[in-house]
Each structure stands twice: as structure tokens, then as C-alpha cells.
Design a protein that fits this description.
By secondary structure, the protein is an alpha/beta fold. The chain folds into three domains: about 5-100 and about 305-555, Rossmann fold (3-Layer(aba) Sandwich), CATH 3.40.50; about 135-290, 3-Layer(aba) Sandwich (Rossmann fold); about 560-700, 2-Layer Sandwich (GMP Synthetase, Chain A, domain 3), CATH 3.30.300. The strands form eleven sheets. Strands 6-5-18-17-19-20-21 form a seven-stranded mixed β-sheet, sandwiched between helices. The chain has a five-stranded parallel β-sheet with strand order 8-7-9-12-13, sandwiched between helices. Strand 7 (about 165), helix 7 (about 175-185) and strand 8 form a beta-alpha-beta unit. It starts with a helix and ends with a helix. It comes from Galdieria sulphuraria (Red alga). Belongs to the ATP-dependent AMP-binding enzyme family. Keywords: ATP-binding, Ligase, Nucleotide-binding.
């Protein structure tokens, strides 16, 4: 059922968000329409024509795209079969069932076989501008992929349907590892290189990966990250896990990326082998394993509200088709363009727009593992000029941080190669949108502000960069082809009905929809299809304006969006409570100027335990170790107790209000809503006083 309080907050926020930001529309710049390559969709009228056709006959539309963008060893039997209604049976969606294809072949072999092997696939930008960079063509990429595939198959005995875990920074060997896995029909699970040993171990055990691919370490700005040490610690956790004693990682492939002193880490033979030794001893030719369109290609973990990360499973053909089509049309990509996403291949955006979707379009990318502001805040634009980037994608978090550094770092560089700007990961504030458009793009580059999720695999809403469309700062635009959004609201009498503001749902399956959650189809159905039977539930609040444009207000479930990354509240709370001095913890999101949202933690200590700066640091470290640095609370408030109902349920709605504006609150003014169900209302007064004290201390420190 819909959470009424959360829903109301989302709707009210949406109204404020929209009314304050629709100051004026921005037509697609004339200079873009004249100087950029013609868009694959001629104009907005043509978009509407194609869109209506794609909704009326989705099977026909997606079949035509599948034939255009992918290679098929064998055609499919039926374009689509599905059930979205939990009342009618098991939830499923099957696209192009019976058809045979391979995502690696679509990404690499096609281009090499057509004589385009010399096309550049990746420019690798080094951590320091003065360091040498590497260039990978489609041919050189394919050779390394085949060698790694051969090793996985012949030495590691990986077979179709087995899982390979990948724990690498944002370097070319990451997509190489992904493509090598799917080439032989294996499933890959990429774990972001910022995750802790505990988080890595949990994911390895959940997907039962028998091979882990990692590296010695990498430089990120001035910091050295020793990845092999973390990987070894994770594998030790896996080994010692009593309930997984029948499972272990048999092989670990270690890339010497840093070329660091081998005394910095240990190699455990025969489990561990160096990347260069594995590839040099393997055949440069590895045949493609043709797989059914519905064969799983990847498992990617995303945070959920219950605490345990969700293993999102994607199917080969539908996933790559949606990634390829949304990349092509949203980026207006043409062969020869250079695309740079300040993102990581470890997330779905990187999977789709830096590997599977983009390579299927023959794209040339810039891939960068360093900080976008290192060694100075102009680094991003230096990279743009160096590689003559045509399309740039940056998350709102990055854009906010660059805005904060001032215009001089932007204006220092030409940026004349830029044709289009994109953003994804979270809603962008209109003020930030305008800075991005006017300062970075010199008011000549359209801003494609997309909305999508890990579970959707590709763009769902976008402002198409085509003639006749009016950009609105902060709006995610209109639906992508084949996507039918529905917004539902709860009326005063409790009924659910369609509305222009409420909870965003999707009415029909699209090729890239998540197929299930690994090992837990019941949770899959409960999460995405129980709230509104017959519809995919996004968990986002939304409003549709009079022009048909959509505005996202953010999550309405118990997930916090930090820098575009979704963090489960229960996951953070569990980490905090694991400390022996903590009795109870509750975390809520608070607005953050740079990150969008940040984690605010209310912590109750055990009896006779005193709060201290050391304990504060220990709790931050616990979260870092169990989840990762991105989940560390922005603020920890020591709390004598937490507001609870008489049944013992923590009322997080109240905690969120206290965290956001507790220093201005007065319970007597009714700003907290109904508190009659609380077991001890006096707790609120104490929490507000502590919040005020924290704010005063913060001001004094400033």
C-alpha cells in the first residue's frame, strides 16, 4: 500500500519544486540545430508521431529497433509476453524469447568484422594530467576480451550461467572483464570499487561468484586505494561464512594497475593469478556463446529499504536494446563523436552508457578513474578540451560541486567541442541547471536531464534535444519511446486514482525492465508490483504539468539518495547498531547542497556509555567498513531515546522533520503533525533541543 505521509510530502515538494522553477522555457539552441549533426528524430512533431506509434504497437516498434541495433544469430519467436498483475499470477516480462544473440558480439565483433576495428573505443585519461594515457581501439579491445574469455573458460572452467564478480576501478579493464564474461554466456556482477570488504563479500556470496577479478590498487586524486587488500579481506569473510561453507571463490585474477611494490599485498597461490599472465597464456580467439534473448547478462546490486541490497537481474537482449536505443536518441550520438561521462562503470549508468549501449552504437568514450576536481577544479573541462568531447554527462552532485568552485575554472577552457550536456542520477535544481546550460554550455548546448533507475537499465524520461521542444530547468521532460508513465494519487477517502501529481508508475514492460531480484522473486514482486497491481512501481514522487512534462520530487520510500547513489536506511542503521556501545539507531535523509541528500543519524547509546568524539569517529568508521564511504552519516545526533508509537515502531517522519528544521521547530505549533500516537511525546522536545545545540555549535565552529 501507498505510504500516505510520504506521498503527501512528495506531492507538496513537487508543487513547490515546479511552481518555483517554471520561470521560462528554453528552446533548443539554434546553434545546436545548425551545427550539430541532424538528430535521429527530426523534430518534436516527429517524436510525438513515433511515440504514439510505439505506445499503440510496442511489439512493432521494439522489433524494428532490435533489428536495427542488434545482431541476431537466430530470430525470435514472439516479441513480448508478460504479466504485470500480481492478482493474475507470477510477474514476468519476456522480450524476443527464442532469439539468439550475444552482447559482446553486438558491442565489438560487429565493428571489427565490418572493417571498423581501428575506431577508438576508449581514451583512458590518467589520474595526473602529466601521466601517459592509453588508447583502446575496437580491435585491441576485442583481442583482450577474447584472451580473458579463453582464460575464464579454459582455466577457471566458467560455463554458461556461471557468475564472475568484478571489483575494479573505472579503467578499461572493467568493461573488458564485463564483455569477456558475457562473451561466453557467463553472468557478471560488478561491485563498485568504493565498497568495503564486508559489502563485497556479501555480494559475492549472494551471487555465488566462483571468480573475482580485481587489481592491486589505483590512484584517485592524491589518495591510493589498495584494492587487493580489500578483496583478500572479502574473500576471507566468504571463506569463514558458516552458512556458505559449500561455496568458495576458486580463482582471483589480479591486474597490476599501480605496478606497486608487491610487498604491499599478498598473492595466494594457486587461487591468485596476475592478469598479464592469464592473458598471455590464453588464446586470442574465443568463440561467441550465442544465448537466448532472455539469458541473464548481469546482476547489479542496488540498495533497498529493507537493508539487504537487491541483486537486480537483467536479460541479455532486452537490456542491451534499451541501453543502445536510449543512448542513441538521448545523446544524439553519431559515429565519430567523443562521449565523456563523469561516472563509473560500476553503476548502471556506466554499464549502459559506457559499455553495452554505447559500444553497440560504435561509440568513442573517455574513461577516467580520477577525481573530476583533481589536481584543480578545472580538470573536467581540461579533459573535454583534450579529447574534443562532443557529449558530456555529469551527475547533479558533480555539477553542484563545480558550480561551487566558481566560473573561472570553467571559462579557463574553450569547451567549443561540446554539442550536448546531459545529467542523470537525481533531480537537478533549476538554479544548477541554468548554470550548467549558461556557463558550461555557453547557452548553445541543450541539457538532456534524464530520469532512470538501476531497475530500468536505460532512460525512461528525457527532454529530447530536437527542434520544437522547450527545455524546462529541473524537468525530466517527456517519456522515451514505448514508455507509458502513470501517476497515481490517494484521495481523501483513501481511494487510489490516476492524477497529475503523486506516485510515478509505468504501465507496460519495456525491454530493459529488471527481470527479477536474484534469489528472491517474491521480494521483486512485493517491491515493484504489489503497491499498484498491474503497474511497475518506481518509488518516486512525480508531477506532470500542463505541457505533459514530468517533474521528479525524489524517493518516497526508505532509501536515501546520496550523490545519485541509493542507500538503504536499514543498511546504515544495521551498521551503526553493530557497534557494541550502540543500543538503537535511526537514519533519515537531509538536504545537502552538493550531494542532493545526506545521511543524518539519531543514535541511542547503551546504558552507562558516554558519548565522545572518539565514539563518533568509530561509528563513522563502522559505516565505512560495512558499506562504504558514501554512506557515512553527515551528522550523528546522540539521542536519549527515539520517538516511537505504543507498538514500538520508530516514527521516522518526525525524525526527518527534526533533522531538516529542528532548530526552528516548536511542537506546540503543530508543525510535527499528529503526535498523539507516541508513547512518550516528551522525547521530541529533547531531540529538538539537542538539534538546536548542534546547529549552534556548527555556527560557532564556522
Amino acid at each position: 500500500m501507498l505510504r500516505h505521509d510520504s506521498f503527501l510530502k512528495a506531492v507538496l515538494f513537487s508543487r513547490r519544486f515546479c511552481s518555483s522553477s517554471i520561470e521560462k522555457g528554453y528552446p533548443i539552441p539554434e546553434s545546436f540545430l545548425v551545427n550539430a549533426a541532424p538528430h535521429h528524430i527530426q523534430n518534436f512533431e516527429k517524436y510525438k508521431e513515433i511515440y504514439h506509434s510505439s505506445i499503440k504497437e510496442p511489439d512493432v516498434f521494439w522489433s524494428s529497433q532490435a533489428k536495427k541495433l542488434l545482431y541476431w544469430k537466430k530470430p525470435w519467436n514472439r516479441a513480448l509476453d508478460f504479466n504485470f498483475d500480481v492478482n493474475k499470477g507470477k510477474i514476468y516480462a519476456e522480450w524476443f524469447k527464442g532469439g539468439l544473440t550475444n552482447a559482446c558480439y553486438n558491442a565489438l565483433d560487429r565493428w571489427v568484422e565490418s572493417g571498423q576495428g581501428d575506431r577508438i573505443a576508449y581514451y583512458e585519461e590518467p589520474n595526473l594530467p602529466s601521466d601517459s594515457s592509453r588508447v583502446f581501439t575496437y580491435s585491441s579491445l576485442l583481442e583482450q576480451v577474447q584472451r580473458l574469455s579463453s582464460f575464464l573458460k579454459q582455466t577457471c572452467h566458467i560455463r554458461k550461467g556461471d557468475t564472475v564478480a568484478i571489483y575494479l576501478p573505472n579503467i578499461p579493464e572493467l568493461p573488458i572483464s564485463m564483455l569477456a564474461s558475457c562473451r561466453i554466456g557467463a553472468i557478471h556482477s560488478v561491485v563498485f570499487a568504493g565498497f568495503s570488504a564486508q559489502a563485497l563479500a556479501e555480494r559475492i556470496m549472494d551471487c555465488k561468484a566462483s571468480v573475482l577479478i580485481t587489481c592491486d590498487g589505483f590512484q584517485r586524486g592524491s589518495k591510493t586505494v589498495h584494492l587487493k587488500r580489500v578483496a583478500d579481506e572479502a574473500l576471507e569473510i566468504v571463506k569463514n561464512a558458516a552458512n556458505h561453507h559449500h561455496f568458495h571463490v576458486k580463482h582471483q585474477i589480479v591486474l597490476q594497475h599501480l605496478k606497486s611494490d608487491k610487498s604491499e599485498y599478498s598473492m595466494h597461490h594457486p587461487r591468485d593469478i596476475y592478469w598479464h599472465e592469464a592473458l598471455s597464456s590464453s588464446s586470442p580467439h574465443c568463440p561467441v556463446e550465442w544465448v537466448d534473448a532472455e539469458h541473464p547478462i548481469l546482476v547489479l546490486y542496488t540498495s533497498g529499504s529493507t537493508g539487504k541490497p537487491k541483486g537486480v537481474v537483467q536479460a541479455t537482449a532486452g537490456y542491451q536494446l534499451h541501453a543502445a536505443s536510449t543512448f542513441l536518441y538521448s545523446m544524439n550520438y553519431h559515429l565519430g563523436d567523443v562521449f565523456f561521462a563523469s561516472a563509473d562503470c560500476g553503476w548502471m549508468l556506466g554499464h549502459s552508457f559506457m559499455v553495452y549501449g554505447s559500444l553497440a552504437n560504435g561509440a568513442t568514450h573517455v574513461i577516467y578513474a580520477g577525481l573530476p576536481t583533481y589536481p584543480d577544479p578545472g580538470r573536467t573541462w581540461a579533459i573535454v578540451d583534450k579529447y574534443q568531447v562532443d557529449q558530456f554527462l555529469g551527475a547533479p552532485t558533480l555539477i553542484r560541486s563545480l558550480l561551487r568552485e566558481g566560473n573561472a575554472h570553467v571559462k579557463k577552457y574553450s569547451r567549443q567541442s561540446l554539442k550536448l550536456l546531459c545529467t542523470a542520477g537525481e533531480p537537478i535544481n533549476p538554479h544548477v541547471w541554468k548554470w550548467y546550460y549558461e556557463t558550461v554550455g555557453d547557452s548553445r548546448c541543450p541539457v538532456v536531464d534524464t530520469w532512470w533507475q538501476t531497475e530500468t537499465s536505460g532512460v525512461m524520461l528525457l527532454p529530447p534535444p530536437i527542434e520544437g521542444f522547450i527545455q524546462k530547468p529541473g524537468s525530466a521532460g517527456v517519456p522515451f519511446f514505448g514508455i507509458l508513465p502513470k501517476i497515481f494519487a490517494q484521495t481523501e477517502n483513501g481511494n487510489i486514482e490516476e492524477s497529475n501529481h503523486g506516485t510515478l508508475c509505468i504501465a507496460r514492460p519495456w525491454p530493459g525492465i529488471v527481470r527479477t531480484l536474484l534469489n528472491n522473486h517474491q521480494r521483486f514482486e512485493e517491491t515493484y508490483f504489489h503497491p499498484f497491481p498491474g503497474y511497475y512501481y518506481t518509488g518516486d514522487g512525480c508531477i506532470r504539468d500542463e505541457d505533459g512534462c514530468y517533474w521528479l520530487s525524489g524517493r518516497i520510500d526508505d532509501v536515501i539518495g546520496v550523490s545519485g547513489r541509493r542507500i538503504g536506511t536499514t543498511e546504515v542503521e544495521s551498521a551503526l547498531v553493530s557497534h557494541p556501545h550502540v543500543a538503537e539507531a535511526a537514519v533519515v535523509p537531509i538536504p545537502h547542497e552538493i550531494k542532493g541528500q545526506a545521511v543524518y543519524a539519531f543514535v541511542t547509546l547503551r546504558a552507562n556509555v558516554e558519548s565522545s568524539e572518539n565514539l563518533h569517529l568509530e561509528l563513522r568508521q563502522v559505516v565505512r567498513e560495512k558499506i562504504g564511504a558514501h554512506a557515512i552519516p553527515e551528522m550523528i545526533q546522540w539521542s536519549p531515546a527515539l520517538p516511537k508509537t505504543r507498538s514500538g515502531k520508530i516514527v521516522r517522519r518526525i525524525l526527518r522533520i527534526i533533522a531538516e528544521k529542528g532548530h526552528t521547530l516548536s511542537p506546540s505549533r503543530g508543525e510535527l503533525g499528529d503526535i498523539s500516537t507516541l508513547a512518550d511525546p516528551q522525547v521530541i522536545e529533547e531531540l529538538i533541543q539537542i538539534r538546536v545545540s548542534l546547529m549552534n555549535n556548527k555556527k560557532e565552529a564556522a
